Amino acid sequence: MESEANQDITHKSAAFSPSNGSQEQTIFSTFEPLVILEFKPKSKQAAQEWLTAKLQAPRTERGAELIVKTNTSENSKETILYIGATTERLLIGAEEMKIQKTYRDGSLRDISLTDLDNFNNSEDLDRFLTTAEKQRVILKGMESLRASEEETFIPGYPKNSLYPGKSIIKKYLSRNIVSNLFPLHEEEKLKRLGDEWYTMKNYFKTQPIEKIQEYFGVKIALYFSFLGIYSISLVPPAVIGVIYFFSPSSMYREATFAVFNLIWSTVFLEGWKRYCNSLCFKWGTVDSSVSFSHSFEEPRADYYGTMGRNLVTGNPEPVYPKWKRVLKFYLVTLPIISFCLTVAFFTMLAYFWAEAWMKKNAPQNLGIITTMNNLLPTIGYAVVIGILNNIYRTIAVKLNKYENHRLQSSYDNHLIVKLILFEFVNCFICLFYVAFYLRDRALLKTFLGTLLVTQQIVGQFQEAMVPFFFMQRRQKQVDKALRKAEGSAAVTKEVTESDQDVDKMYKKQAALEGMMDKWPGSNDEYLEMYIQFGYVYLFSSAFPLAALWAMLNNFIEVRSDSFKMCRVFQRPFVEKANSIGAWQPAFEVIGLISVITNCALIGMDPEVQKLLPSDMSAVNMVLIFVAAEHIVLAIKASIALLIPDVPKWVILQIAKQEYAAKQALRKQMSEDSCNSKFMMKRMVEAALKKKVVLDAFSRRSTVFRNDSQSAVKEPL
Amino acid sequence: MESEANQDITHKSAAFSPSNGSQEQTIFSTFEPLVILEFKPKSKQAAQEWLTAKLQAPRTERGAELIVKTNTSENSKETILYIGATTERLLIGAEEMKIQKTYRDGSLRDISLTDLDNFNNSEDLDRFLTTAEKQRVILKGMESLRASEEETFIPGYPKNSLYPGKSIIKKYLSRNIVSNLFPLHEEEKLKRLGDEWYTMKNYFKTQPIEKIQEYFGVKIALYFSFLGIYSISLVPPAVIGVIYFFSPSSMYREATFAVFNLIWSTVFLEGWKRYCNSLCFKWGTVDSSVSFSHSFEEPRADYYGTMGRNLVTGNPEPVYPKWKRVLKFYLVTLPIISFCLTVAFFTMLAYFWAEAWMKKNAPQNLGIITTMNNLLPTIGYAVVIGILNNIYRTIAVKLNKYENHRLQSSYDNHLIVKLILFEFVNCFICLFYVAFYLRDRALLKTFLGTLLVTQQIVGQFQEAMVPFFFMQRRQKQVDKALRKAEGSAAVTKEVTESDQDVDKMYKKQAALEGMMDKWPGSNDEYLEMYIQFGYVYLFSSAFPLAALWAMLNNFIEVRSDSFKMCRVFQRPFVEKANSIGAWQPAFEVIGLISVITNCALIGMDPEVQKLLPSDMSAVNMVLIFVAAEHIVLAIKASIALLIPDVPKWVILQIAKQEYAAKQALRKQMSEDSCNSKFMMKRMVEAALKKKVVLDAFSRRSTVFRNDSQSAVKEPL
After folding, report:
1. Which of B24, B596, B662 sits opposite A661 (nearest CB)?
2. How far from the centroid of its chain's Cα atoms is residue A639's Cα?
3. Domain ranges, ordered by start, for chain B
4. Is the ipTM value over 0.90, yes or no?
5. B678: closest CA of chain A, how far (Å)
6. Is B631 helix (H, G, I), strand (E, B) or coil?
7. What is the distance in angstroms between the CA of the first residue and the CA of the last residue of chain B?
8. Which of A628, B143, B248, B258 is the most exposed, having the fewest neighbouring CB atoms within 10 Å of its CB?
9. Tens digit of pLDDT for each residue in B191-207?
10. pLDDT tens for residues A317-340?
11. A292/B289 Cβ within 8 A
């Protein structure tokens, strides 16, 4: 064990700061694997070798030009590829991916290889890119391996046909020939990040967003930032909700509470949009030309089509006609989704019907049996909805893939809308049904409270307990794996010669992290927040303590999510983002609907009706609430318009960049065009003008000569 | 007269195509005045000379570097400047103003002097810019004459103080030292344009928008384009309105008509936005970086402040702190405007009160006297509102100037909002009052019909008859001026030597056009359309024939406006625009409000109420109309979202330009940075690496040597 610890230190120091003691270590183990690829045990040798060769082949020969070390353990029949790349390859890749870094003038600019000198921190090119960026470059390199005309199937798997332009690695993953593909964690850095992030002593500090971004990328950093800001934004409604709860019923109380909540949701969402834009600007994901640059973004790896050329850049890329996607959407997606939503809706109706039937027909006064009987429909509904949800999700993902969106952001947004639609029917329509069809205020309160609290308890259990269990399990796995790694290390050393330069530490780390779960993406987390947001704002006047519950839940959520992120899941590849995507409008729609629901709820509340002047007609009462609704909507719209989406300083910076780009384009154009050519043209023009003048003069002089001739002749 | 006509032809051919006959003429009268500046008669000689010198001075000496010919007619004491510029000066100015021209690849690009070669039609540089563009360049040159630190007043006018950064020409204009500043018309071109535009034979053809843009600039072309499209968009509502008028009352009729109108207004406005964007793209006013380029647009000439630097470009420009503008807005503008609107509102109330009082108290049955008495309040109201309107407009313009907006577009938009607010109270609030407070459907119909028809008849009279009268008057002026010009020509020839090279024709043209009215801008025309749009859509279910009236009116309006544009007014300087500015949202707001008003109108209609099931409660009825309103609003919002604001082909083109700019910036960066420096750095790095390796080797060899030494020692 002593030697293990020692080696650990050596490895870390090699990775972070070469000290005297490990000088030799640094030099002779320069290969640093960044990404691990595990082939499925017993997958065909030919397929493994083909991919490995592709990964290593130079890019001129349609390869990825990566450094690959293979490790096949004799006993488990498992082949693992340790993938790294030279600094040059990584920098070239970073340039191609337009990764942005701080320029000497403080602005962020796309990396330019020939201009690296002017970027900050470019003294040590090996550390110019963060590990996360390097891993992304490698992934991009792997993803851009696309089948050529001749490569019609995966060697060893003649049935797994490829077509030109299909991403090879995606095929390996979808056919499960590659069982695992993940970037390695940086233990040291992760530990420091975790210390700041989820440990108890920092519980009331803000999250280290900058460091999260550096380690996990913009997309995940935005999720945590949104979760944090959303949780904090719940404090005022929670406080006001408590005050509401303990204050006597009055028209004034109802109006203040409802109006505050309704307007607050807009302030929060607009404030977030603004904050998000400044974060993204700092992180270089707000393009200076936000508007139309998507036309020359590269398509996602799963995007398929016939190989053609990008209409803007002229670079080769798969082309898929838009009308096909539109047709697929209207003829396939729309009917199927509508059918699923209808099923969910009728399931809900069936539930209400079953419950009513049970209450009416089942024998009452039987104690525990009655309770059981009465619970039966609810349990049945929960089970059916759970099953339906799973089926629906599978269908939604399949349909979304089938639609073949060109950009990852477009793919994500379409998936988000599909997920939201189902949850809407599932979680909210039944509340609408209770509130506005059954008009049962008491049932609505019970329902809301039950849904919110149970979902949160279940959620917390899943998110705080399960990670703890995972932690325990992994600890055991660590020990087991360590022993196994020590054992197998001896074996492999004899078997494969090529991998002797992969550090033993990396092998262990790869083995350990290979056993961890894949991060399932942030959509489920957002969805959870979304439903909670709906519970809090849609019916806030019926259940004013919702904000308090949600706030308490979220303060735990932030930490349990961050713990999972660091300790439970494999490191995810970083992803770019410049907003939370379709979630932003989705939250805004809830904010909008909540105005309608709350005005209706308050208007329907008999308590409130009693507070109004008794001589008021029912029609006038309705009109007052409609007017109130319109006024609140107008206020919300004005707030949304008045809070600029992009902070002034970001606008200034972007404008500066735009201006620089324009000036550069101008300079470029003038340099491109041959100056001497222009000069020549001007000279020719001048000459032509002169000629005209001379011609005119000569004509004049001709006239003069004629005159003089005639003058001469005259005397004769 | 014969020689006059002859000279006319000579002049025209000189301007358009040099023919054989006028070869000499072309060469010896190359000076073409483009802009005319008239000093006020009896203005101080010193002020005239100072400005003239400034206009002529080279730009290095803070001048405008223009060619100026002076003409002082002895009898009228009037000094006229004929202003032109060399082709070089015009091209330099065009480059600075970022005028866009077609590049050889078909795209529009900012003119670049060193790259002129690659622009289409750059063979003849004298005609590379249109006359309108040249005139704009000259105006810009004049406007950019700004007072320096030392120039504290206008010579000859010690009381007219200047401060550093103030536009000198604007001061001359505002102090009325310069009485007239206008670009000359191009008779030939104008005649051809008019033939296509307003003559009877082309009455049912579309307007020659491209030619209008070339002659009058983008802003005016957009106005006429909008007027045209709006008029055409009125055809479906007009047709449906007529059908409605002649069909029997039914729920179906009401619903169809209202829903069609409400949704149609959105389709029209979204369609226009899209069309406008493609027009602006074609005309080069959609910047590829639409979003933030306003930060480096140049401020308007009236903008004042201490001389500082633009935060983006670093160019010197007046700087005015934003908080001052905000303070002015909230502390001065807002209270004054609110006061004005309140006055207008109470005037309206007073009118209704007076009318009711008159009906009640004035002796009836007195025939003509009764009618007169009953008309008194209406006449009084019309007079008072007319006066108030004039006062308000003066105040609005003054306040808007006082707010000191940096950009012309921002100035325009703030003025538009101010104008709209007053008209809203003036024209619409009284209709709201009748419709929803008095709930007098019959009165509403009468009111709407009267307002619409009288306003249109008065408007048509003003716009079609007055121009005709002008035409007549001008014909006389032409004759008078011609005689005068002939008379004075002889006088001036002796008096001033410098102006003998200003063509006689230009002098006449300048004298004639100087007498024409200044074009008052398009705001009043938009306002007229806006009020009409409100009459048509806000209460369409009360007065369904409004669209027909409006349509008929507008088809005349297009032609009378175009006639005025060409024949009645001085040529305006062209102005850039990339939309119809604040009018777009203003029209959209009407579209939005019309949903509310129409749903309410239909809901309140006793005819409609009779058509509903009789057992329906009043509350449910209200709820149905509220629900209908929400559904229509949702449909409108979806349509607005689904119709992309920018057509696909424009997006592609802009993306291409953005991509080119990015690539150029990248190339630029790499060229700017010293390549050899980078190479050197890499070499040094390589050397350093080698050194580390060598060091390690040397240490190894030391070890080895030690070993060998010990090995050597051992045997000993």
Report:
1. B662
2. 27
3. 32-184, 193-320+404-656, 676-716
4. no
5. 6
6. helix
7. 132
8. B248
9. 999 888 887 666 667 88
10. 788 998 999 999 999 999 999 999
11. no
